[in-house]
Known about the structure:
- The chain is 63% helix and 9% strand.
- It has 612 residues and is an alpha/beta fold.
- The strands form two sheets. A six-stranded mixed β-sheet has the order 6-7-8-3-9-10, with helices on both faces.
- Adenosine-5'-triphosphate binds at residues 128, 371, 374, 378, 396, 398-404, 560.
Amino acid sequence: MADTGHKKKQKREKPRFGTLSTCIWFLKRGWKTWKRVPLLTLALILLRVGRSLFELFLPPVTVEKVANGAPLSSLFAAVGILAGGLLLTNALIRYIGGNMLYPKIAIRSTIVSDLADKMATTSFPNTMDTVFLRLHSRAENAVGGNSTPGEATWGTMENLLVSITGFIIYLLLLTGAHPVLIGASAVMAAISFFVTRHADGWLDRHQKEWDRAWKNRRYSVGVAKEPRPAKDIRVFSLQGFFKDRADKDTLGQRDLLVRMERARLPGDLLDLLFFFLRNGLAYALLTLMAIRGEITVSEFLLYFGAVTGFSGWVAGILGGISTLRKQCVELSVIRESLSYPEPFVFEGGKPIPEEAKKRAEITFDHVSYRYPGAEEDSLHDVSFTLRSGEKLAVVGLNGAGKTTLVRLLTGLLDPTGGKVTLNGEDIRVYDRREYYRLIAAVFQEVMALAVTVGENVAASAGEIDRERVRACLEKAGLSEFLERLPEGLDTHLTQEVWLDGVGLSGGEAQKLLLARALYKGGAVLALDEPTAALDPIAESEMYRRYAEMTEGRAALYVSHRLASTRFCDRILLLEKGVIAEEGDHESLMAKGGKYAELFAVQKKYYEEGEPA
Length: 612
Ligand code: ATP
């Protein structure tokens, strides 16, 4: 029951932007990116209406010329113009249609790029915001292929405008025929449409079921290709498990398809019935009018063709509006995702003072932070200053709040209480991207990018100072690794993109990212336990070496291994989100408190040869 309620709630979700405003947005984007698409769409509309008129008039005009004994030249001229027009419009429609494919894809691609840009540059809290993530994923689906709204809406607009124009022209033409014909054709087309829409509604209602089966199946089939779960799949014999899941989802999808066909059947049958009724009625009424001498034979042919065409236009208008509205809901999601509010200042913020680029002092002023939806603060009323040139350690057990503190210091999160200041000024007033330029950081999740070694270290695809990259790799302890690389700095890393990409051990990846932090420089350095893959002695050595290399800058070292950070000028011991103890290693040991206790426990493990 809860699930049903949830579904109902989702179904009623209103798009933020209306259909008309979204259509205008879409047209403007098209105009800005590639004017050819809106212009050629307009040309196609005119050509398609023209083609249907040539088609409509060809038989009655020919019959009229023959029946009236018109001279052959006049007959040939009329037929030549109409048939030639038909051929020409057909050829142009095909030619233009074929030429629009790539520009339409190009317009969609700009939306894909904008969405990727938004995701890559959005404020960090948005990357944890489920509302934003869901919007973004829907938006990506809306531009995921040629038949998605990001591209197919051009076709819908074209069809709709062709139908509206055709409707008006045919309505004027049919004024000479029996009014019952117009009414009956319109009513039958409308009924057919609403019955078919009911079937489409069925599809909409079951879309989530379909998508879920599709996603699950794709995962079950694709997981075997992933390098990460490869070991678990083998050791835990998960092959059969995933195969069964994929088979179950395939059967589920097949069952849905059968049910969908069943739901469509009444609409299809009704369409067929109306086809016979409409044509039968038209035959009967027009024949009667012809017998009474109210219309000529050629008018009979004209009206008969127009009646069939007219119901097509009515169905086209109703169907077009319905499709356009649905597509605009998805396009609205794209707009919403692109304009999702940014909690950080990215434009119009104060520039960072030049002085801070060389000498940065960061202060936590009664800072608290609570994650969205959490019941407790992860950091509570934390105050300290990281001075320029100082080496500050933050230590504590798992879950103490160390990573949260680093995220606040590096400007990835803003406090929910108190403030973080740079040389006395709240960092929220600065352009956040400029603030990031001050910071070199290595985070816990160590991951080399699937680009070259040089690009990984320089974090740039542009101009790279190769000597500096080499020097940083050497300083980070990767000289031997560098020598082994088949193409030196141009060697690709990881096999995610490049089959000949070189894989890295956990320790090598960490050193590579340290080299990147060194290359960037910056007034503030933050290392959030990037050394987890190293043994305690290697971690200790790495931290010391790093401290030597970054002398003179403000540096923050996070670890839960107390031995690694004892060289630091000052140590903060975090416990359950608050600073429990503060001082240098010696003073904290002398105090005999929590730090000393933890240090003694960890030392015991090291001495016994078991890393903490
Ligand atoms: P570790 O040593 O395991 O990395 P830590 O000291 O770095 O731990 P944090 O990652 O800062 O600790 O987490 C502090 C608290 O905040 C924990 O209780 C954690 O469960 C919670 N927390 C962390 N990230 C989130 C999140 N995205 N949403 C909700 N709570 C979170």
